[in-house]
Design brief:
Chain lengths: 209, 403
């Protein structure tokens, strides 16, 4: 059950922000995107990535950040990343080609779409993973709110990948962007950032390797 | 009785059961630890009361002596042979649990107490009442040693709980299992054991069972970890009929894993958070829902990887291979594509961008492939990994997706 008062949501969002341990950002690997995002993908809050149906490029876009988390760097030890309810089979040689450390990748298959959110919630609650990517369908606002608040408690990079038709549903996510594939000889993606807490919205085009 | 013996094993490893009515505990070695026989007596009385029994607890220098004192209903703590002798002499022979025929013979000869027994000539006593009785007398008064085989606790746990009403209500079933789990917990503590597999049988009125198996990736020394896993499984369970009886079984593995508070403690703790999470996920989604990924040294793309069932253990170090470009997604099986004028079509005509990469291998195991792989672009700009099967009539297949 939810009561639809715009001010209340603002208050919730402010609360989530003050809870957020964030400030920590995971560099996306694309300088133009990092500039828009203030240094990289935000942790400590939900990121919502909207994609067109069929083959899309979300994993290519997320891969450099997943690589950074799973391999570790000067400031952080290698950490676990979790792929929840992926639409196809994550192909180990492909992930390896992108640079991910396979020994730090967990794949969770679900039988019902609703389980994806449950898994994400459990993962955020445990704080055992540094990055959690979930492919989810319809989600209630209360469920999203809970995920967002949970994500705010730990510096976990949490991404919810959903179909583009959910763009006009309200969402508590602190960052929302839609991906558009660009026809052309390069694998290019136009990332349309339409909600970017405390930062400017806008569109940026990145070229995937 | 076995359950009580298991419980009493916390006081001493030497516990034996006598004639299904008495427990004998050799506590000489445990006096220091528990702070004296009075403390042990109080703890035993308390614990047995909690199990719903009214015990007579007596303590004496000989096992037989304490058994006979307890049978006679005398609660006492005796530390020397003289005290024991003094208390045993007036005990009636009718209370020792000897066969009725012998009791009758003793009564006919006018012998009523142990004191009168001891005063009889030894040879005559042995001839009339059997050498075994004489031996027992000697054991009780400490004149001959008594060897008792301590009860060996079983290597597994099995316990049942009959439900007062048949029910399919998750809360009621869970409450029942929690009772069984608390018993398991007690056993794990007293045996200093741990367990990694739990079998839960739910018996229906027609005698059939629904079985739940819960496995952990590392043994747990406390039954508490099973609590939430069991709840998740019960909630997901569809019962064909109400349940009348619960059975809980667990196999012990040796030794308890101590939680590290040493230098490695941090790492262990972090991993246990993850293993706890993976166990919760497995309990709800099934054992195979959680997996890791690993490379396999193999040219056939569908065989170049494998799932790792226990990503925490086996997947520690994987060297990164140098690879040619591969997609991040693969289809469960290659999908046949339509072809128009020899060109593959998928959501519009595909434009071949890169290739061919010839993969020709596997002739030795009968699953040989001969394929030309291409990176293709569809009209939306998505990159697909397709191949032309050179063994057939050059059909096109979609095998993977980039991006």
């Amino acid at each position: 059950m939810s009561i639809d008062i715009p001010g209340v949501e603002r208050w919730h969002e402010a609360a989530a922000d003050s809870l957020s341990v964030s400030g920590i950002r995971v560099p996306s690997g694309f300088p133009a995107l990092d500039a828009m995002l203030g240094g990289g993908w935000p942790t400590g809050g939900l990121t919502e990535l909207l994609i067109e149906s069929g083959a899309s490029a979300e994993l290519g876009l997320l891969s450099p950040a997943l690589t950074r988390l799973s391999c570790g760097d000067a400031t952080a030890d290698p950490a676990w990343v979790m792929l929840i309810a992926p639409p196809w089979i994550p192909y180990a040689p492909g992930l390896c080609w992108q640079g991910l450390a396979l020994s730090r990748v967990l794949v969770i298959d679900v039988r019902q779409a609703a389980d994806a959110l449950w898994v994400m919630e459990a993962a955020l609650r445990s704080g055992a993973c540094a990055g959690v990517i979930a492919w989810a369908g319809a989600a209630g606002r209360v469920a999203l709110q809970r995920l967002h608040l949970l994500a705010g408690k730990r510096p976990v990079w949490s991404v919810l990948v959903r179909a583009a038709r959910f763009r006009y549903e309200r969402s508590p996510a602190m960052l929302r962007l839609q991906l558009h594939l660009q026809p052309g000889t390069q694998t290019a993606v136009r990332a349309e950032i339409f909600k970017n807490r405390l930062r400017a919205v806008g569109t940026v085009t990145v070229v995937l390797p | 009785m076995g359950r009580l013996a298991g419980w009493a094993a916390r006081f001493t490893p030497a516990v034996s059961i006598d004639a299904d009515q008495a427990l004998l505990l050799e506590i000489r070695g445990s006096l220091q630890l528990f702070g004296g026989p009075e403390k042990i007596q109080a703890l035993l009385r308390q614990g047995l009361h909690a199990h719903g029994h009214k015990p007579v607890v007596s303590c004496a220098p000989t096992a037989r002596g304490s058994l006979w004192l307890a049978r006679a209903g005398i609660e006492c703590i005796l530390l020397t042979q003289d005290e024991l002798r003094h208390r045993l002499l007036p005990v009636s022979v009718a209370q020792l649990g000897w066969p009725l025929a012998i009791q009758k013979m003793l009564a006919q000869t006018g012998v009523r107490t142990l004191g009168e027994c001891v005063r009889l000539p030894r040879q005559g006593f042995a001839r009339r009442f059997g050498p075994a009785r004489l031996h027992e007398l000697d054991q009780a008064f400490g004149r001959s040693p008594e060897l008792r085989r301590p009860r060996v606790a079983p290597e597994h746990f099995a316990d049942t709980l009959e439900l007062p009403v048949e029910t399919a209500c998750v809360a009621a079933l869970l409450a029942g299992f929690q009772l069984l789990l608390s018993r398991l917990d007690e056993r794990l503590k007293s045996r200093q054991a741990s367990t990694d597999t739990l079998l839960c049988n739910l018996r229906h009125p027609d005698g059939s069972d629904t079985v739940l198996c819960i496995r952990l990736c590392r043994p747990a020394a406390s039954a508490a970890v099973f609590d939430e896993l069991l709840r998740l499984r019960l909630e997901a369970l569809v019962l064909p009929a109400p349940v009348t009886l619960l059975v809980l079984k667990a196999r012990f593995s040796a030794g308890q894993e101590t939680t590290g508070s040493d230098l490695l403690g941090r790492e262990l703790q972090a991993d246990s958070g993850l293993s706890g999470l993976l166990e919760r996920l497995r309990a709800r989604l099934g054992r195979h829902a959680v997996r890791g990924l690993a490379l396999v040294d193999e040219y056939r793309p569908e065989r170049a990887w494998r799932s790792v069932n226990d990503p925490l253990v086996t997947n520690r170090a994987v060297s990164r291979q140098t690879l040619s470009r591969r997609p991040v997604w693969i289809l469960p099986a290659p999908r046949l594509l339509q072809a128009v004028a020899g060109q593959p079509v998928h959501d519009g005509t595909l434009c071949l961008e890169y290739g061919p990469e010839r993969i020709e291998t596997g002739w030795w195991d009968g699953d040989d492939v001969r394929r030309d792989y291409y990176v293709a672009r569809n009209h939306r700009g998505a990159r697909l990994w397709i191949y032309q099967d050179l063994r057939s009539v050059a059909d096109w297949y979609l095998h993977g997706i980039f991006g």
